[in-house]
TrEMBL record:
This is ABC transporter permease. Coiled coil: none annotated. It is found in: Cell membrane. Residues 23-225 form the MacB-like periplasmic core domain. It comes from the Bacteria. The chain crosses the membrane at residues 21-40, 259-280, 300-327, 347-373. Residues 262-376 form the ABC3 transporter permease C-terminal domain. It is a multi-pass membrane protein. Keywords: Cell membrane, Membrane, Transmembrane, Transmembrane helix. The lineage of its organism: Bacteria, Pseudomonadati, Kiritimatiellota, Kiritimatiellia, Kiritimatiellales. Pfam families: FtsX (PF02687), MacB_PCD (PF12704).
């Protein structure tokens, strides 16, 4: 049984090869649709990972109350010791942020100024790919650059680059399991404070690690209550909720793209359906001859469905592969108000794209297959 099905699949492939130009044009059309679908799905998936809370999240962001852009959030650095003494806080680090563009942009450079002696303790998961921590600590204008930002700008240790009015020298390239760390540059806190002209002692935010994920809400309430009566009150949120709030423009923009993805799927469905229907109409006599020599109608219909599936799967391999290569090489990332979201396709997006194209190819072939199976043999031979 399986041998017969495999032989019919091979025969369907040979039928496609017989009409190389038509098959190639159909594959290119399907690949274009799946390229668009994969890019849109990558944006949706990246947004979901950046904003969806999980039980393993233990990071809070302490920001100036009623402020959203890094340029307007200014907190005294001496809040650090007060936050560190609050029950439930495991680690806290002051961060001064400077960005090249505060609005939504595809080309944004974000500098995060942190104390040089606290970064390795606060973010032990960060791995140095090139260069070293020592080189960064020993140079006031040194920068540890995330691998995505480094790839996008073509940076390596020893290179100098300038953005947002800040000129730094790359001391190392870092890789982190936290996507945001891979698209920013870490610099010395005093250096960025002076470069941003806000002066020493002022930071944009405090990043706080709590002991356990279930402590996030309680600890954030304690922090805000402690500074409620101060001249610079705070608003504390989980890191992903903070991202969702500050990057509203970005989220609205990406949410709209799901309609583009849906349009790409419908285009692929129509393209394969039209191509297979033309194949069936041009092969009426051949199908009748096959049935005359003993091929059952179901076998003819199976061959038609196989042709649609091969077109869908072949086009998806090409489109998904090109989209993955494009996103990897370009290192695209969205930035909005200091928050950065890298666009990186993952295995789930790739498998979804290829599976969807395969299903679309089969679904689009059902009507042509039914037509080929039900057409009377005599009528087909006379046509």
């Amino acid at each position: 049984m399986f041998v017969k099905l495999f032989r019919l699949l091979v025969l369907a492939g040979k039928q496609l090869i017989r009409h190389r130009v038509r098959t190639l044009l159909t594959l290119l059309g399907v690949a274009s649709g799946m390229f668009l679908f994969t890019t849109v799905q990558t944006m949706q998936r990246s947004l979901d990972k950046s904003t969806r809370m999980t039980a393993s999240d233990t990071t809070l962001v302490v920001y100036r109350e009623n402020r959203f852009c890094p340029e307007t959030s200014r907190l005294p650095e001496f809040y650090l010791d007060e936050i560190a003494r609050i029950d439930g806080v495991r680690e806290v680090i002051p961060v001064k942020i400077a960005v090249s563009n505060c609005g939504a942009s595809l080309d944004v450079v974000t500098f995060r100024g942190v104390p040089a002696d606290r970064l390795s303790g606060y973010a032990p998961e960060m791995n140095i790919l090139e260069g070293s921590y020592e080189a960064w600590r020993n140079r006031d204008d040194g920068a540890l650059v995330g691998k995505e930002l480094a790839a996008k700008r073509g940076l390596k240790p020893g290179d100098a680059f300038e953005a947002a009015g800040v000129r730094v020298v790359v001391s190392g390239i870092v890789d982190s399991p936290l996507p945001q760390d891979n698209s920013v540059a870490y610099v010395h806190l005093p250096f960025i404070q002076q470069a941003s002209k806000h002066g020493l002692g002022i930071v944009t935010q405090f990043n706080v690690r709590v002991n356990a994920g279930e402590d996030l809400e309680a600890v954030s309430d304690r922090i805000d209550e402690r500074f409620r009566s101060e001249t610079e009150p705070t608003a504390t949120q989980p890191e992903k909720a903070f991202f969702a709030q500050t990057a509203r423009e970005l989220i609205d923009l990406i949410s709209f793209t799901r309609w583009i993805g849906l349009g790409a799927v419908l285009a692929v469905l129509g393209l394969i359906g039209n191509a297979v229907l033309l194949v069936v109409r041009g092969r009426v006599k051949e199908n009748a001859i096959l049935q005359t020599i003993g091929f059952p109608g179901v076998a003819v219909a199976y061959m038609v469905v196989c042709e649609g599936a091969l077109l869908g799967f072949g086009g998806s391999l090409l489109g998904v592969g090109l989209a993955t290569l494009f996103l990897k090489l370009r290192g695209l990332s969205f930035g909005n108000e200091g928050q950065v979201m890298a666009l990186l396709p993952d295995a789930q997006v790739l498998l979804t794209g290829m599976s969807l194209a395969l299903i679309l190819g089969m679904a689009a072939s059902l009507v042509p297959a039914w037509t080929a199976m039900r057409r009377p043999i005599v009528e087909s031979l006379r046509s």
